[in-house]
């Protein structure tokens, strides 16, 4: 018994005597480079056909210093199809069939509301999430670098993206990526910063991959009487 106690004490002393840099070195060895992390993310979504997930959204207005929160369901079918259905009385729908984006907002007190249709690339959110939707590639369309996870209060990896071609709707995107090897490359949060410094954050929960999704999911007709605010007449 005494022999076992001596061994245990020696083992504890050995661990305590390790250089302080040993733990930091181990962390560095576990942390992928920006290129490796981007490859993990791209590799995961290259093998993904569909994504269905609940989301919470927090939009921060820099001028008014005000945050607006909402939640809903996001459905993606690669390549290029994407739909946001906002819940909790919001009723907003943002849907892309791959080429045309429709944004619909219901009116007050059950009114028909209004909508606008435009090419996908003119709208910020779908183009900022294009790598998930399969219409862009991280290694071809973005410059990237690692960001400090502690600064973002994230227990994982954070990858900062800047588009190689200027995007009018956003300046950079931060991807919050799982640190668990079993889910390597899965993006759990996306933070979008526009050129004015406003922030748009999406947190994804209950993510499901590669389940069948009908193409009809990405067709949307506004209710009768809804006003097309994109028309000039």
Shape: globular
Q: Tell me the helix content.
A: 10-25%
Q: Tell me the name of the CATH homologous superfamily.
A: Lipoprotein localisation LolA/LolB/LppX
Instruction: Tell how many strands the DSSP assignment holds.
Output: 12
Number of H/I helices: 6
- CATH fold group: outer membrane lipoprotein receptor (LolB), chain A
Strand order of the largest sheet: 7-8-9-10-11-1-2-3-4-5-6-12
Oligomer: single chain
State the CATH architecture: Clam
The domain count comes to 1
CATH class: Mainly Beta
- Would you tell me the structural class of the helices and strands? alpha+beta
Task: For this entry, give a set of tags.
single chain, 233 residues, alpha+beta, outer membrane lipoprotein receptor (LolB), chain A, 12-stranded mixed sheet, 12 strands, 22% helix, globular, disordered N terminus
Task: Produce a short descriptive summary.
The chain has 233 residues and is an alpha+beta fold. The chain has a single domain (32-222), classed as outer membrane lipoprotein receptor (LolB), chain A.
């Amino acid at each position: 018994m005494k022999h076992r106690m001596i061994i245990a004490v020696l083992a504890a002393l050995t661990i305590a005597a390790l250089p302080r840099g040993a733990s930091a070195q181990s962390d560095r060895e576990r942390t992928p480079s920006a290129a490796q992390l981007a490859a993990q993310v791209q590799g995961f979504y290259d093998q993904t056909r569909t994504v269905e997930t609940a989301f919470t959204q927090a939009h921060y207005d820099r001028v008014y210093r005000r945050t607006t929160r909402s939640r809903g369901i996001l459905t993606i079918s690669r390549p290029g199809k994407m739909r946001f259905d906002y819940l909790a009385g919001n009723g907003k729908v943002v849907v892309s069939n791959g080429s045309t984006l429709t944004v619909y907002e219901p009116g007050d007190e059950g009114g028909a509301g209004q909508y606008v249709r435009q090419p996908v690339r003119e709208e910020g959110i779908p183009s900022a999430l294009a790598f998930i939707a399969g219409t862009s590639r991280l290694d071809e369309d973005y410059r990237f670098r690692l960001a400090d996870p502690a600064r973002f209060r994230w227990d994982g990896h954070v990858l900062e993206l800047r588009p190689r071609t200027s995007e009018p709707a956003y300046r950079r995107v931060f991807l919050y990526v799982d640190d668990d090897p079993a889910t390597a490359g899965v993006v759990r949060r996306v933070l979008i910063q526009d050129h004015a410094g406003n922030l748009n954050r999406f947190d994804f929960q209950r993510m499901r991959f590669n389940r069948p999704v009908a193409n009809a999911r990405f067709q949307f007709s506004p209710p009768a009487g809804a006003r097309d605010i994109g028309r000039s007449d």
